[in-house]
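Page 42, continued from yesterday. The earlier attempt failed because a stray header line got pasted into the input along with the sequence. Redoing it now with the clean sequence only.
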Amino acid sequence: MPRAFFWILAVQCISTLADSAFLIVAIARVMELAAAGWLIPVLKISFTLFYVVLAPFVGPLADAFPKGRVMVVANGLKVLAMLLLLSGTDPVVAIGIAGLGAAIYAPAKYGLITELLPGKDLVRANGFFEGITVCAVIFGTVLGGVLVSPLMPRLQMPVLLQFGDLSDTVLVAGMLVLLVLHVVSTVLSVGVVDSGARYARHSIHPLQLFRQFIRENWILWRDPLGGLSMTVTTLLWGVGATLQLIVLRWAHEFLGLPLAQAAYLQGVTALGVIAGAMLASRFVALVRAERVLPLGILIGLLIPLMLVIHDVAWAAVLLVVVGGLAGYFVVPMNALLQHRGCALLTAGRSIAVQGFNENGGMLLMLAAYSGAIALGVPLGSLVIAFGAMVALGITIIYGLQRRGRRKAKRA
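This time it went through. Structure tokens are written below.
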């Protein structure tokens, strides 16, 4: 792998770590303000919204400029979001600005990898990248737990950063740590290499961009391998984003852990994710990526086991196993989707299409979860429903894929 790839990995690790910790700090701030419980999933909705709304535009933006410059601007928006949270702005608004930066950042980082590496190296590169990303998400959640715990000192806002009144919060120290992390990722983005790839310029008229984006979605969905991988990743990202919040609630209600310790528990999932992602990058070739589909069914069947576990040690074992299966399953699917997307479209545009669908799935799942909380649906029913959704969904996808393969052989 070229040195430039590992530099991008470093930027991705720090940026994602800060984003995940931001969510926990924002949740703690909502709880500190004694807001309604259904606002917690709304935080994640606010972060994800721009991925969907701006999807027709962020791909062409990433292709119109050197992607390192786009990453600098995107991470700069996250710095702004942290400053807004420090100013006493509503956490839903602050995390939404961070989501705007993340939406701009996504096609630039993934598109740059596709530009720098040949197709034969994409599974291996995705093993590194997804392993680092998922672990940064999980350890960022753990970091968020530390930042909202009594371990952090009680600080007053520095005079230079006194934008508003935060005298009623104990989260100033944690917010300052997140500000530093976002500044570091922005500075590192300046050193991201220019791949030299350039694309033909297109109209920037919003209506034309929207129509082009619809056509690009249609192209990728109609492709047999592109449509397969898109369906799988859209389903899993939607369920996974919701399960992240469900696990925090499960750790509190079934294991008796406060928010900080519930966030620590998610960190053990990283062990399984790392192992699964690295094994996939070593043993799963791109041409055989679709053969990992049965693992998705197994993941769905394991999720309801959460309801019979009331011991922290066994909870950790379950999360490690599920993390390992998820890492081994998602990496080949993601690599296959990126490979087909780059072949059919441009790097930035294909990632924008992928982000639109995956984050659209997340928005639908999170909205359903928020509504379920508002209606008082029990946690057990939600866990069973999400597990069944994964198992049944992947079973249907796997059956359709096998039928399509048999038809192709007969033809």
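Notes: Residues 312-344 form the longest helix (33 residues).
Reminder to self: strip header lines before submitting.
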